[in-house]
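Q: A reviewer asked whether we had any structural model of the full assembly, not just the individual parts. We don't, so I'm hoping you can provide one. Inputs are below.
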Amino acid sequence: NAGVTQTPKFQVLKTGQSMTLQCAQDMNHNSMYWYRQDPGMGLRLIYYSASEGTTDKGEVPNGYNVSRLNKREFSLRLESAAPSQTSVYFCASNGPGQHSYQETQYFGPGTRLLVL
Amino acid sequence: SQQGEEDPQALSIQEGENATMNCSYKTSINNLQWYRQNSGRGLVHLILIRSNEREKHSGRLRVTLDTSKKSSSLLITASRAADTASYFCATGVYGNNRLAFGKGNQVVVIP
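A: Here is a predicted structure for the entire assembly that you could use as a starting point for your response.
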């Protein structure tokens, strides 16, 4: 199993450009999450999807949109990137596993985004 | 808002020593989890303790939870250079699968 995968790994954008961050999981998890991580701020939840077909705002949703394309995939879109969106973005999923709890989250490797 | 708050923020120890870090939270929780993040990588789950548990062990990890003080501690015994990482606590509440993460503790283990 690949677990949680994210693409791209790195991206540089100019202010105002748009892009979509892709995330996929192969663990048959119902819930998926997008976080951003900034120095000294820990992880902040942007959006999450409790199940296929549902999405909800997290702590810092402004400037982002999401799509839960199917059970495996959850994408994050920046319609008009701003320098304040320079960050590391992590996708995560959760659900029961052979050696884990329902509440355990599994993280992707992250996407490092720089907005100039 | 951030639920977990770790203390101290940075810790530097010699290999073989124990490392202890604390986490406090503000509201009622269902569970508290600790995650590790190696530099440039995603977070990896270490251990989960439920609100009705007081102590839990996993290998060299020991977690305690004091719900009356709304605090938890993570102890790593006999630390190794490979334990160098950031450690985050995260709290889960009843009714949803969201987690609130703290700001993290950076631990450096000197060989």
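A: Points you may want to mention in the reply: Chain B touches chain A through 26 residues (CB under 8 Å). The radius of gyration of chain B is 13 Å.
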